[in-house]
Specification:
Strand order of the largest sheet of chain B: 2-3-1-4
Number of helices of chain B: 10
Order of helices and strands of chain B: HHEHEHHEHEHHHH
Helix content of chain A: 25-40%
Number of strands of chain A: 10
Structural class of chain A: alpha/beta
Number of strands of chain B: 4
Strand order of the largest sheet of chain A: 6-7-8-3-9-10
Number of domains of chain B: 2
Radius of gyration of chain A: 17 Å
Oligomer: heterodimer
Strand content of chain B: 5-15%
Helix content of chain B: over 70%
Number of helices of chain A: 7
Distance between the termini of chain A: 16 Å
Shape of chain B: elongated
Shape of chain A: globular
Structural class of chain B: alpha+beta
Largest interface: A-B, 25 and 17 residues
Order of helices and strands of chain A: EEEHEEHEHHHEHEHEE
Largest sheet of chain A: 6 strands, mixed
Radius of gyration of chain B: 31 Å
Chain lengths: ~220, ~290
């Protein structure tokens, strides 16, 4: 379970998240809603400890994330799969190399890496593209690579920051399907989006933010 | 093994992507190594020549005029046992007269009718004792021996040579440290440009859970590779300069540094320089 208790994290006096409290259960798919600048990305960055937390507590399965020491962060982050709107793929790397990167960081053997990457490539529908340079792919394909990279370590949590932001509605729907099936297997998924029409038919729980404050959950 | 290959591939890939900054770094390393190699070459030759010259260092000892031949030999053997004396020649009255004639072009017996020159000795000095201060200590030790009238060496010349060598060495070390520091700053700034261009990738790596060491290693390898390229450039120029030197100087005697030492020294120094510089920049960035 992910729990926010009166969390404040800000970039300036007026931007960031303020006194935010909510909880997400294990295996749940939750949408973080709100316009640009509402604080959706900040929530995700706070979970992954990519920004300093000024006040409050974030707990993940009884671990207080805000108190994690700097040297513990790498191993903590390895349990979280992160998907970005701008994909954050390594440009010079192939699809296979990008997806295998988290496993190389963990230090798995070549064979184990191959097994896992092959499996996840099939899951996201990129079979046959393994050796393509990621920067030569379409936006939808790049986002699939980004999702595959997040899934390959079989993490407990997936944080998806506007993963459908630059994609057409059909591809966006496919991507939410993949995230839904991941959540069905027990992974907690938090996806930020400002595209309400896209998530409305899913009838899933959403947390709405505006100006860094909770509006609805 | 797979990790090593990954790191190597990453660093080679990064080098090929940032060709211009990498080339600038390598050329800076090459220039530093060239200056170091030439300075070292000049230093080795200077030391070599000073050693050659110092082989001629001698202490001249004159015994009292009343010292007899047998007593003179005993004194001579006693002096030979002093620390720092390598070997010596006993100078009897005939030898002394011959030296007198060589210097003044006159026969002492013809002038005075007798040979009043004392017995004595000429002593060569061990290699480790060939400096003005140590020779002075030896001379003082000789002078207190009963039967010795005087002991001397060319103090001024030896002191000047010692001072010259130590000054050149001191200035050389200072200049060397200066060049080393400047080149580390130059190379690390160039590497910082490469790091700056890859800051998004580095951020992605940290979000994926990479440790600082995991992020650092490809950059350190990149620094070492730049060092290798720099040492290659430096060696090519040095080989050319060496051939040019042989051509110009012909048979003139110079101490030539062994090629194995030149090559290994350049490669090791180049790699270390690249490693220090890349470590400096990536550590600053990841702080």
């Amino acid at each position: 379970m992910i729990r926010f208790e009166n969390v404040t994290a800000r970039y300036t006096q007026e931007t960031g998240i303020f006194d935010l409290s909510f909880a997400v259960a294990k295996g749940e798919l939750v949408f973080l809603m709100g316009p640009t600048g509402a604080g959706k990305s900040t929530v995700l960055r706070a979970i992954i400890r990519d920004i300093p937390i000024e006040k409050g507590i974030i707990t993940i399965d009884k671990t207080d994330v805000t108190k994690l020491k700097q040297r513990k962060l790498p191993s903590y982050r390895r349990n979280i799969g992160m998907i970005f709107q701008d994909f954050k793929l390594i440009k010079g790397m192939t699809v296979y190399e990008n997806i295998s990167l988290p496993l190389r960081i963990v230090g798995l053997s070549k064979k184990m890496i191959k097994d896992r990457v092959t499996k996840v490539i099939e899951l996201v529908g990129l079979k046959g593209k393994e050796n393509s340079l990621s920067m030569r792919l379409s936006g939808g394909e790049q986002q699939r690579v980004s999702i595959a990279r997040a899934l390959v370590t079989e993490p407990d949590i997936i944080l998806a920051d506007e993963p459908t932001g630059n994609l057409d509605p059909i591809v966006s729907d496919d991507i939410i399907d993949i995230l839904q099936s991941t959540a069905d297997k027990g992974t907690t998924v938090i996806m930020s989006t400002h595209n309400y029409p896209l998530i409305r038919p899913r009838k899933k729980r959403f947390i709405e933010l505006n100006d860094g404050r909770l509006i609805h959950q | 093994m797979s990790r090593i290959i990954f790191f190597l591939t990453e660093s080679i890939r990064a080098l090929s992507r940032a060709r211009i900054p990498a080339l600038i770094s390598s050329i800076t390393i090459a220039i530093t190594l060239l200056i170091f190699s030439m300075a070292y070459y000049a230093y080795v030759n200077l030391i070599g020549y000073s050693h050659e010259f110092k082989k001629q260092y001698r202490i001249e000892v004159f015994f009292n005029p009343d010292v007899e031949y047998r007593q003179g030999l005993e004194l001579f053997n006693k002096i030979l046992l002093i620390d720092g004396i390598e070997q010596g020649d006993f100078v009897d009255k005939e030898d002394a007269a011959a030296i007198f004639k060589k210097i003044f072009n006159k026969d002492v017996i013809e002038i005075i009718g007798d040979n009043p020159l004392p017995f004595g000795g000429r002593f060569e000095i061990d290699e480790g004792f060939r400096s003005a201060s140590t020779m002075n200590s030896i001379v003082n030790e000789i002078k207190v021996i009963n039967g010795v009238d005087d002991a001397l060496f060319s103090t001024g010349l030896i002191m000047r040579l010692d001072r010259l060598v130590s000054n050149i060495l001191g200035v050389g070390i200072l200049i060397g440290i200066g060049i080393f520091v400047i080149s580390i700053i130059l190379v690390s700034n160039t590497i910082r440009l490469i790091i700056h261009a890859k800051q998004d990738d580095i951020h992605t790596f940290t979000l994926l859970g990479a440790t600082k060491l995991f992020i650092k290693i490809p950059f350190l390898l990149e620094g070492i590779l730049q060092g290798l390229i720099g040492s290659g450039i430096s060696l090519l120029i040095l080989i050319f300069l060496r051939s040019l030197l042989f051509y110009i100087l012909g048979s003139y005697r110079m101490i030539i540094i062994e090629p194995v030492m030149l090559i290994s020294g350049n490669i090791v120094a180049g790699c270390l320089l690249g490693l220090f510089a890349s470590h400096r920049s990536i550590s600053k960035y990841l702080k």
